[in-house]
Write a structure and sequence with these properties.
25% of the residues lie in helices and 19% in strands. Bound molecules: 5,6-dihydrouridine-5'-monophosphate (H2U) and zinc ion. The site of zinc ion has 6 residues, from loops.
């Protein structure tokens, strides 16, 4: 069969993890751009901000007081979207008006006591503490019988809706398996049943052989721009070994994960020489008591930026109404990220 050239022709790519499609228009990257491309003024934050509700020793908006914590610190979200208490009764008016109660637990993870250090500028040892906290939290929440899924995520940067610049993430553990996870679970289990090997392990093999979408890697992890990426600089972090959740990671794999997260986020900051906003999160095996043998642990990074620190991609129009579309092909985005330095631009400037 003749192959068409992915770099020249409009095409659609299939996302085997969700079963959905993304439209790619590589020819449009040649179109003129007259919008602004400006650099952001560099921001310096203090090590400790007396007004920050996440800094050690400070009072939170919910009136609780943070302990004088010295490493990664987790607390119950004072304005939790979900509640652990069961709700009695049901709501249902026929087939068209359906609702179900949902229980859950929401927590906040302060990555470090330092107000001024985000993941790319934390040390590998400090990021390892975050990895350990994520794994511990997963175990703790998994032990609650009503929790069926533990979503660990980070909204990074005001552009992504982060409410505070103090480096932090969140955990929402839910009594229901949310939409995205349902899609991924269906696709991964169907693939395993058919091929006897996990979808993401076969996918990783293809990417390692092709090489053109790799960003960086180490002995245990690979960061790449997925073939089906929707956001311009979207990436995935995949384990080389088939593991389903963070608590399964061995000590050496956790160190290696801290290393890959640091290197990937440094590359992101270096892309436009500005703090790079994103939503990232882990997709772990659901904790509903089922085996989910096809499930492979992975992280998604969804960054909104397109051309500069201020020009973002909007999911509007056709994308909102029909299906996502991108101009710059995944291979070009990967090549740009792969070519960047792993020395943070702020550190490079200090030399
Ligand atoms: P985001 O920046 O991603 O919104 O996360 C901050 C979370 O911190 C948010 O969910 C919680 C908010 O509810 N929060 C507290 O729990 N206590 C506070 O004192 C302020 C913010
Ligand atoms: Zn702070």
């Amino acid at each position: 069969m003749e192959h068409f050239n992915l770099a020249d022709h409009p095409h659609r790519r299939h996302n085997p993890l969700t079963g959905e499609w993304v439209m790619v228009s590589p020819h449009r990257t040649k179109r003129p751009w007259q919008g602004q491309v400006e650099k952001l003024p560099s921001e310096t934050r203090p090590r400790h901000d007396p007004l920050c509700y996440l800094c050690p020793g400070n009072t939170r908006a919910g009136r609780a007081v943070n302990p004088p914590y010295e490493q990664t610190f987790v607390f119950e979200n004072d304005f939790a979207a979900l509640m652990p208490a069961p709700v009695a009764g049901e709501f249902s008016q026929g087939e068209l008006l359906r609702a179900e109660p949902v229980q859950g637990i929401c927590r906040v993870v302060c990555f470090s006591p330092r107000h001024d250090l985000a993941l790319p500028e934390m040390s590998v040892a400090e990021i390892r503490q975050v990895v350990d906290a994520w794994a511990e939290q997963t175990l703790d929440l998994d032990a609650k019988p009503f929790i069926r899924y533990v979503q660990i995520f980070e909204n990074c940067g005001a552009m992504m809706g982060a409410s505070n610049p103090h480096p932090h993430g969140q955990i929402w553990a839910t009594g229901a398996i949310p939409n995205e996870l349902r899609k991924e679970e269906k696709q991964q289990e169907a693939y395993l049943a058919l091929h006897k090997t996990p979808l993401l392990m076969d996918y990783l093999k293809l990417e390692l052989a092709a090489g053109e979408r790799l960003v960086c890697a180490n002995s245990s992890w690979v960061a790449l721009v997925p073939f089906w990426a929707v956001w311009p600089f979207e990436t995935m972090v995949l384990p080389r070994r088939p593991v389903g959740s963070l608590p399964e990671l061995a000590a050496q794999e956790r160190d290696a994960l801290a290393d890959i997260l640091k290197r990937l986020t440094i590359r992101y900051d270096n892309l436009f020489e500005a703090p790079f906003p994103y939503s990232m999160g882990w997709h772990q095996r659901p904790t509903d008591g089922e085996a989910h043998p096809g499930w492979i642990l992975h992280a998604h990074f969804y960054p909104p930026l397109l051309r500069s620190a201020t020009v973002r991609k909007f999911m509007v129009g056709f994308e909102l109404l029909s299906e996502p579309q991108r101009d710059i092909p995944a291979e070009l985005a990967a090549a740009r990220l792969a070519a960047l330095s792993e020395t943070h631009y702020r550190q490079a400037a200090d030399r």
